[in-house]
């Protein structure tokens, strides 16, 4: 079982047939410098497509008092691709036949109707590629708007979404919707943005740092032989940062500096021991380098986040972005940093769908067109998903299947304007 409570194993024939029967509707993308994040809605197999739009029938329909609307049951799916492997993403989209304002459409659809909501810098960079290869027009959605909308949606509607993590203990936090705002959203991608959120559509980017996920991967590639973020994370598992980091105890003969509240095990200088040792890079284990690098960046982000929370009197700090990836050591380091600097008054909180805030916010923006009303208030808890579920028809790519398994799906309902 993975971190999202997803059962590992293979689909039986019946389950695969069910997946194939599901119709695909409403796709949104967050195309970043490192990763492409995707959110799409799969209509349950007791719903069907009629006259180029999705409509409900039978048990799929819900009474909402509006005869001009259809309400569909289904699942939100979350998927990611490396941006350097964008052709895999294009192949997946081609296999799924996403059409017409992010929805599925039978027969010929005019190319100017194949509009997909997208955010991130890649929405501009790769717009021509999506148009050329798939006939899709990327409708650009503001990145900060999307991040905040995605976070608000999850925190208000998804059960068991936010949690704390420290000393190996994961504890879900029940969010009081009436007391959610204000909070600090720390989105850790290639760089880091810190956003003070005061309500729906009410936010301000108050700070940030260029030392983020891109720093970890960039320095990691230079200092080790790792080629990917996940490879670097895996390497850090068996590392020992104390071999490279200078600790308080190294300076004070193994003693605490109790007068100012520093334990002997506290880091005085990241990579500090390399200054006094007559060693070259190859004399250090790559595992230790990766561990020290991860700890340095995580500590730095945790400290800056708390200082900004203190600046605005905020008690809630939510961390998102694919830098975290549910990685225990990363979350623990950030949590310890927030706990230390706040003297226990503040806690770091994490999100199950941490990396998909922007894509989910872009998905929510379909409401602004008047064509689709996404009924967020019917959003319910995450359910298990097995490898290959809705992984894309005949496309057999192990990395894609792993991503589907890792990120799971969420049951929800969507309201469509007819």
From TrEMBL:
It catalyses: (R)-pantothenate + ATP = (R)-4'-phosphopantothenate + ADP + H(+). This is pantothenate kinase. The lineage of its organism: Eukaryota, Viridiplantae, Streptophyta, Embryophyta, Tracheophyta. GO terms for molecular function: ATP binding; pantothenate kinase activity. It comes from Cinchona calisaya. Keywords: ATP-binding, Coenzyme A biosynthesis, Cytoplasm, Kinase, Nucleotide-binding, Transferase. Its main location: cytoplasm. It is an enzyme of class 2 (transferase). GO terms for cellular component: cytoplasm. It is found in: Cytoplasm.
